Amino acid sequence: MKEVFLLLCMSILAAGCAKSTPAITDNGLPGQIKVVVFHDANGNDVQDAGEPGLQDKVLLSQDVSCPPTDKSKMQFADTDSNGETLFKDLKPGKYCVAYFGERTMSTKMTLDVYVSSEQEAQSYFGVLEK
């Protein structure tokens, strides 16, 4: 009986710790991803008031791996003076967004992003130097 209880508790804990994939809505219409690169002056991984966006390079891929390995599936973009770029007309699904600049990062360099129809997903990349 003790073993059954222990096994049940372990199963519940494992289920609670498992990563869940966000639901993706696909009604036949595209979605988009807004990407922001910013100067993370205090290194807290969040764009706080007064931390400006930066012009830099990012990439988008619907490759299975993140970071992506298939160059034919990569889409490169430059961010504007506000540190922003927008990938439009995306088929709903899972994408890899990656920072492609040469600055030191405060955040992860790659992010899995889930796109739903008629929605804008957002990705932020903090850098520690201007």
Keywords, please?
mainly beta; 7 strands; Immunoglobulin-like; about 10% helix; four-stranded antiparallel beta sheet; disordered N terminus; about 130 residues; 1 helix
SSE blueprint:
Layout: H1 2-17, E1 31-39, E2 57-61, E3 74-78, E4 84-90, E5 93-99, E6 110-115, E7 120-127
Description of the structure:
With 130 residues, the protein is mostly beta strands. It has one domain (25-127): Immunoglobulins (Immunoglobulin-like, Sandwich), CATH 2.60.40.10. The chain is built from 1 helix and 7 strands, in the order H-E-E-E-E-E-E-E. It has one helix at 2-17, and strands at residues 31-39, 57-61, 74-78, 84-90, 93-99, 110-115, 120-127. The strands form 2 sheets. Strands 3-2-5-6 form a 4-stranded antiparallel β-sheet, with no helix packed on it. The longest helix has 16 residues, at 2-17. It is globular and about 40 Å long. Mean pLDDT is 86; it is low at 1-17.
